[in-house]
Automatic annotation (TrEMBL):
EC number(s) reported in the record: 3.5.99.6
Source organism of the structure: Flavobacterium aquariorum
UniProt-listed PANTHER family: GLUCOSAMINE-6-PHOSPHATE DEAMINASE-LIKE PROTEIN BT_0258-RELATED (PTHR42892), GLUCOSAMINE-6-PHOSPHATE ISOMERASE (PTHR42892:SF1)
Keyword Ligase on entry: no
EC category name: hydrolase
Protein name: Glucosamine-6-phosphate deaminase
InterPro entries named in the record: Glc/Gal-6P_isomerase, GlcN6P_deaminase-like, NagB/RpiA_transferase-like
Entry annotated with the keyword Hydrolase: yes
Keywords: Hydrolase
Chain ranges of the Glucosamine/galactosamine-6-phosphate isomerase domain: 25-79
Biological process terms in GO annotation: carbohydrate metabolic process
């Protein structure tokens, strides 16, 4: 899909609010990129922190490449860096 700006719904913002020190600091919009566009990049850096991300990051890095886990496609990128 294309790169685009999307509005974040209230549930998403509430879920992320802990990372932004409160709902009032949580963004209302986000930029989203399709996997195809990301794979076209010369270099990709994926950054993740917190125990809550550990299972999905493990699946992304060590699991099967699948549409169910879009970040798993980074296993096929020639210059992907994972910062954990």
């Amino acid at each position: 899909s294309k790169t685009r700006l999307v509005a974040l719904d209230h549930i998403t913002r509430v879920a992320a609010s802990g990372d932004f020190k409160g709902l009032s600091n949580t963004p209302r919009t986000a930029i989203t990129l399709g996997v195809k566009k990301i794979m076209e990049a010369k270099q990709v850096i994926l950054m993740a922190w917190g125990e809550g991300k550990s299972n999905i990051i493990k699946a992304s890095v060590e699991g099967t490449v699948t549409n169910q886990i879009p970040a798993s496609f980074l296993q096929e990128h020639k210059n992907a860096i994972f910062v954990l």
